[in-house]
Structure formats: C-alpha cells, structure tokens
Amino acid sequence: MTAQGGLRYVYAVCRPFAAALQAQLTGVAGAPPGLLRHRGLVAVVSTVPEGDFAAEPLRGHLEDLDWLAATARAHQGVIDALTTVTTPLPLRLATVFRDDSGVRTMMEAREADFLRALDRLDGRVEWGVKLYVDPPEQASAPAGRPASGRDYLRQRRMRTHAQEEQWRAAEEFARILHQRLSERAEDSRLHPPQNAMLSGVSGQNLLNAAYLVPRADSEEFVELVDRTKDEAPHMRVELTGPWAAYSFTEPAVEPMPAPATEPAQPAEAGEQR
Amino acid sequence: MTMAGRMPEPYGRDGGGANLADILERVLDKGIVIAGDIRINLLDIELLTIKLRLVVASVDRAKEMGIDWWEHDPELSTRARSNQLTRENRELRERLAALEALEGGRGQLREREKRQEEDR
Lengths: 273, 120
Description:
The complex is a heterodimer.
Chain A: E1 6-14, E2 34-38, E3 41-49, H1 50-53, H2 55-62, H3 65-85, E4 89-90, E5 96-97, H4 100-109, H5 111-121, E6 124-133, H6 136-139, H7 149-183, E7 187-190, H8 196-199, E8 204-214, H9 218-228, E9 235-243
Antiparallel strand pairs in A: 1-3, 1-4, 1-5, 2-3, 6-8, 6-9, 7-8
Chain B: H1 2-6, H2 20-29, H3 47-55, H4 59-64, H5 74-119
C-alpha cells in the first residue's frame, strides 16, 4: 500500500484481537482507523494528510490550542474504543510515519519492549482520581458585616485560621485517600495537580493520581472511591476512567535505593514486575 | 465480550467531555514515546506552556507531595538558567553604572580640587 499523499498516524500497539472496532469510529483527521498487523502485534493506524501532519505544518498546528484539543480528543477516542475490546499500548500524540513500511520497521525494532509492556498491562485499566478543595472564601461562611475595626480584625483572624485548618485537613485527607487507593491498585502514579484555567473545574486540585487496576477489580475500586466521596467536607473526589493505561506504559522507576536504615527484606517473587 | 460486561460504566466522560486537562496530560505526557518519521519534539513547542499551565497554581503543595517533575524538565531549567543570566546581566549593568557614576563623581571632585588650588 502506498501512502498516496497521506501519512500514517499510529495510535496504539496491541496484540491481535478478534472484536471489530465501532464502524463509525473516526481518527484524528476524520479517517477511520485500521489495523496493521506485523508478526505478533497490531498497530492501529489511520491516514492523515501530509499538508497537516508533515513536520512543518504539524509544528504550527500544535501551537493552536483548538487544533490540539480536537486532535487530542480524537486520539483519545480511538484509544478509548480500543480499551473496550483489548488492552492497547497507547502511543504519545502525533506519532507519524511516511508509510506502512515505516510503521512495520518501528514495530520490529520495538517488538520486545511492546510485548513486555503488553504482558505487564494485560487486562488492566487506569482510573484517575482527583481531589479538589473548595475555595476557602466559599467554605467559611461570611459572619456578617464587622461592627468595628477590632471586630473586622477578629473575623479576619478567624477566617485565616479556618483556611489553614481546612488546608491541613485537605492535605491529610489527600494522603490517606492516596494510601487507601494505592492498597487496592497494582500500581499508582502522582501527576501534577491541574490548573483550573485548563480543566475548567472549580476548587484547588490537591491530588491528581492514576491507579492501575485489573478490570476484574475495577468495580470494587470504583465503589471504594465512591464511599470516600462523602467523608470530607469542603472537598470533592472526582473519578475518571476507565482509561487505557497511559500513565503506566513505562515500568515504575524506583525513586532511589532503599535507605540503609531499613532492614533488607528478602525479595518476594510476587512483587517483581 | 464478557470482560466488557464486568466493567463499570465510564466515569467523568458523560456529555462529550473528559476534562481537556485529563486528556492532554495523558496524550502529551504519558504513553509510549516513539520517534516517528515525522520528528517533532513536543517539548520544543509551545506545548511547554500548556505543560506549565497544567503545572499549577500551587507548586509548593505539589512539591510537598513529591511531585516535582518540572524541576528536571530540561526546557524548564533552561528557562530558569536564562532567567538567572538575565538577572545577573542586569545586576552587572547596574554595578557598572554605579562605578561609572562614582568615577564621574571622583572626576568632578578632582576638577573642583584643581580649581580650588588654582584659586589659591
């Protein structure tokens, strides 16, 4: 197959799967994604116009938040559809090749990595959990107009105190929540908190975490998150998913060797990844 | 498929929209990185600003929780370095100006002393 003025956009790499993709599914440039099989792997690809996806125009488009948002949503749409039928290994946005043979060459070069990652993630999905704290102004009820200067200062002191208390409580809750959810997940990642300007969500994002959970345990995990929702006042727990295991495509990096003060534990086979 | 039947309904994506930040942080920052034929370094792009926008309001709190990836981001630290250079440059210029002023002042002082001597 020749590219005929089109380039190959690759969404994900999977093991071969039997189920068909949704018939009306469209990819980043409106074309339906197809499967490119090579040895024991399948790449999910679609044709994209060279006029938009060659290096020069692509660089320009990526500066455009609207274009970026639409492309990101389309990319995620394909990954999402794949997640319902298999365990995809999602590629980063805008992974583009000249033609099918370029994609095949890449698949062959990375075959061992892909197979290892697919084995590790097989049957698992990612759940996103975010904790938001309401803006303090909203949380501490206004105590009416101050009657005097001294009254004003007293009210302000109380407000500041209440805000500090609220932050402390929120941070403590975030820590406990993350710990509790990590115990029920195979793996977890902490992402930087999101800015309200981009997320369009009110409140301060305090925890932004991803948890790797077997599909079979997902219902239980979701119930666990649901139960925490009413636990903390002035806080909001938000769950998203199931996502493809985007945050877990790289194996966990041990932050540093175990501190010398810890007694060495014999390695348990079950914990090795 | 049986496994799909066991999955809870998707959360947070009703009505056509996961929060854009949720999607961007995954498709831009996570997922397997492969050098395609079309080479674009996502970090070279203004996406960096999006990353920065994702980064937050509250850097200190993120740090407390051990989230500090941006500190290792070469783009960001380059930026930090260039900020430092700009500041050093400005400080040097200020010191130079101060020295020149001082030198100029000394010159005037010498002129005055000379004139005073001439007057005597």
